[in-house]
């Protein structure tokens, strides 16, 4: 009897030692629900900020664009009256034309200068200190930039006009003449954004393999041929992104115009943002100002998606 019990105990101990280790329990639906609540709790501040500072103002602006709203009276629904006024508003179309002229100058000159600068920096292999110094103008506020350049381009006391007067005998009214106002503002905008755009393009150039250029040199391609046939096609995604950012930023220009020209002389530099500001805070016609803002938003969305579609922004010739 004792022998049978001893043998049974040995069998039990053997089974205990050879038993597989316990497996971890999988999380059930209740555990997943807890994780979901934690995720929503972490995302809640961002959703709250999005709703308060973006979604609600946008929806409120869309509603006000169909109303007649002055600051001291409640909004009155007018339907499409503001849109009809917009279509027949000659000053709106004039400001839209000035904005388009400013955008074309800023984008063409800005992207061109930035691309050349990025290529030179890439070939020279400059360090991060030089690239950091280049981006400094972008970090300066538009108001400070406009003030400094307004003083420098002053026809009587500005250092730039002092040199021009010494060479040509007479100063140039950069911000005071119809022909020079918009190009001067575009040049100021290019100076401010050129460093940032050049750094973005420089980062894109670093992603191009050096072996591609070596193969081009072996085939006897010149620097210009490699830039046109290799650099530009391979840089297309970054280049399109820079163009889109410049179009959006130039279309929304306000601070440098407000400080330097205030839309003058004789509405020569009246960009659309200045006209919207004048309607809203000068004439207190917030309903019509909201209509113009909505029209500007729709135009920006259309231009952005058109550029991305035509330029195949998500692809390059390496794909």
TrEMBL record:
Q: Does the keyword 4Fe-4S apply?
A: no
Membrane-crossing ranges are 37-59, 98-121, 133-152, 234-254, 286-306
Does the keyword Membrane feature in the UniProt annotation? Answer: yes
**Topology of the protein relative to the lipid bilayer:** Multi-pass membrane protein
- Record-linked InterPro entries: ABC_transporter_permease, MetI-like, MetI-like_sf
Matching entries from SUPFAM superfamilies are given as:
MetI-like
Alphabetical keyword list: Cell membrane, Membrane, Transmembrane, Transmembrane helix, Transport
Homology family: Belongs to the binding-protein-dependent transport system permease family.
The main place the protein resides is membrane
Q: Which domain of life is it from?
A: Bacteria
- Where does the ABC transmembrane type-1 domain lie? 92-309
Provenance organism: Lentzea sokolovensis
* Compartments, as annotated in UniProt: Cell membrane
Q: Which Pfam families match?
A: BPD_transp_1 (PF00528)
Q: Where is the composition biased (Polar residues)?
A: 1-10
Write out the ranges of the annotated region (Disordered). 1-30
What is this protein's name? Sugar ABC transporter permease
């Amino acid at each position: 009897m004792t022998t049978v019990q001893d043998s049974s105990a040995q069998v039990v101990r053997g089974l205990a030692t050879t038993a597989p280790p316990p497996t971890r329990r999988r999380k059930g639906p209740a555990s997943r629900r807890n994780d979901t609540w934690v995720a929503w709790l972490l995302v809640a501040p961002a959703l709250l900020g999005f709703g308060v500072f973006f979604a609600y103002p946008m929806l409120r602006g869309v509603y006000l664009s169909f109303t007649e709203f002055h600051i001291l009276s409640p909004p009155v629904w007018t339907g499409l009256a503001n849109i009809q006024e917009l279509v027949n508003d000659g000053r709106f179309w004039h400001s839209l034309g000035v904005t388009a002229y400013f955008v074309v100058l800023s984008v063409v000159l800005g992207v061109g200068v930035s691309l050349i600068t990025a290529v030179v920096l890439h070939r020279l292999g400059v360090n991060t200190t030089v690239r950091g110094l280049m981006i400094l103008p972008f970090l300066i506020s538009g108001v400070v930039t406009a003030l400094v350049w307004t003083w420098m381009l002053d026809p009587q006391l500005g250092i730039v006009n002092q040199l021009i007067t010494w060479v040509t005998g007479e100063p140039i009214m950069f911000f005071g003449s119809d022909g020079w106002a918009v190009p001067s503002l575009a040049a100021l905008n290019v100076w401010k954004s050129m460093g940032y755009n050049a750094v973005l393009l420089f980062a894109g150039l670093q992603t191009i393999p050096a072996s591609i250029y070596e193969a081009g040199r072996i085939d006897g391609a010149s620097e210009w041929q490699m830039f046109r046939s290799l650099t530009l096609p391979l840089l297309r995604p970054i280049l399109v992104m820079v163009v889109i950012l410049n179009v959006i930023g130039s279309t929304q220009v306000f601070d440098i115009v407000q400080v330097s020209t205030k839309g003058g002389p004789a509405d020569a530099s009246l960009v659309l943002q200045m006209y919207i500001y004048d309607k809203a805070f000068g004439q207190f016609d917030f309903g019509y100002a909201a209509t113009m803002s909505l029209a500007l938003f729709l135009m920006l969305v259309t231009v952005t998606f058109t550029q991305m579609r035509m330029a195949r922004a998500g692809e390059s010739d390496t794909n």
